# Entry
Amino acid sequence: MKAYLDYNIFTAIEDGDFTLDKIFDKVDKRINEFPFSAAHIQEVDNIFGDTEEQRANFISRRLDTIKRITNCLYVYQEHKTNNIFWFTEEPTTVLETIRQVPFAKTAMKMFANLISSEQKEQVRQTLGIDSKELNNYSPEQVVQHLNTKLISWGTQDNFLQLLDKAISFHPDKKDFGQHNNIAGVMELLDMLGYWKDKVTETSNYARLWDSSHIHFGSYCDYLVSDDKRLRFKAKVVYDIYNIKTKIISSIGTE
# Structure
């Protein structure tokens, strides 16, 4: 069985907060594989240090942690076909590959910041959405509630139709793929206030990593995260796309 670990789990294991044994005990003793993806390595490359030498040491340590836990099991999505592949790869090699395409990080940041936090708040106020109320709904109820708000506002589009319409304007819509669909759901959920991220300089950018973790986690038996916001959004995503992956924390709680 496979368990996809959110980046914060690798960090916590490295810091000694808990071990894989606890995941076996609290989650499932049958888990025997912990894959990593490019999203993990992109987060590694975003590590800061007081000096370049310190940053390099932090990155090296984190890559070693990922290698030790995953045994270099790498889950990869081919861009042209959106097919998923599993193979053995060194985390350092993946980092080198990512750094060979520096414009990708800039493009991600530009995409993530298309809608400002002020504009999102204005949308929520216009639709009359109460985030605290919305956060208490089940995954099914979240989409139903948002559909009601959208339609009562006067739009003819429900939540998923709104997403489909946005995709229809994308130049590569034929090859958009599940990965980008999930990223779109994540952005809509955040914009409409469901377990919205705390606004920081990196929150929009980090949400793209979260959507990648949720996507790659969908090919595993478990998605393990100690980020409550990610877990709740993932539940809505998996409910929408009928994905059977179990979403839990490192101690086995929903």
